[in-house]
Amino acid sequence: MIKRFSRSRLALHPWPKPPGGQHRSVCHFCDTLHVAEPLPEGMAARCQCCRAVLYQNRPASLARATAFSVTALILVVVVHAFPFLTMDAASIRTTLNLVSAATALFDQGYPILGAALALFTIITPVLLASGLIYVCGPLMFGRLAPGAILVAKWLHKTEPWNMIEVFLLGVLVSLLKLEKVADLHFGMGFWAFGLLMVCMAAAVAGIDRDELWDRLEVAKL
Ligand SMILES: [Zn+2]
Q: I need a surface site. Which of 62, 91, 214, 217 has the fewest CB within 10 A?
C-alpha cells in the first residue's frame, strides 16, 4: 500500500524534484511505500507506520557538505604536518604521526595492520571529502561535474569504510595503558584528527542521499 508521509508544517525551499510522475520512497525498516513529495527546508519525512526518517531536507545542504569537506581536507594536511603524539620513556623521546605509525607497523612485520591503518584513517577520508567536493561543489551552481553520478555511487560505497572515529577510540584506549609507562604529550596532529572526525561526520550528514540523487538527476537534464 502506498502511503503519504507525515509532516508537521509547511515552509519554503523544497529541493528540485526530477520532472515526470509521482516519486516514491520506501521505508528501510518496514518496507512501506510512500509518496515522496517535495520537502520544505529543515523538515524530515517520517514513515506513517514506524515513524522512521525517510528523508530530510537539510538547510544549505550542498554548501554545508562542501564546506565541511574542504575543512576536512585542510585538517588532513595539519594532521600529517604536525606531531600526533610524543612519548617520553626512560629518557628517550619518541614522536609519532599517522604515516610513521603505519610504516612502523610495516617494519615490525604487520603489513595488513599498517595497510588498514593507512586505508581507514588517511586514504578513505581524503577520497570521501574530495568526492563530496567534486559532486556537491558544481551542484551548488546547478552544474553536473563529468562523471559525478559515478563518483556519487562510489561515495556511498566507501562511506562505511571511513573509520576514523573507531581509530580514535582505539588510540584513546591504548593511551590509557601507555600512560602508566610513559609521559604522553598530545600534538597538534592529535587535536586536528579529533576535529577531522567531526568534520567528516558533518560533511557526510550534510546532505540527504535522496536529495543528492534528485539534484544529480535534475542537473543531468
Ligand atoms: Zn517504516
A: 91
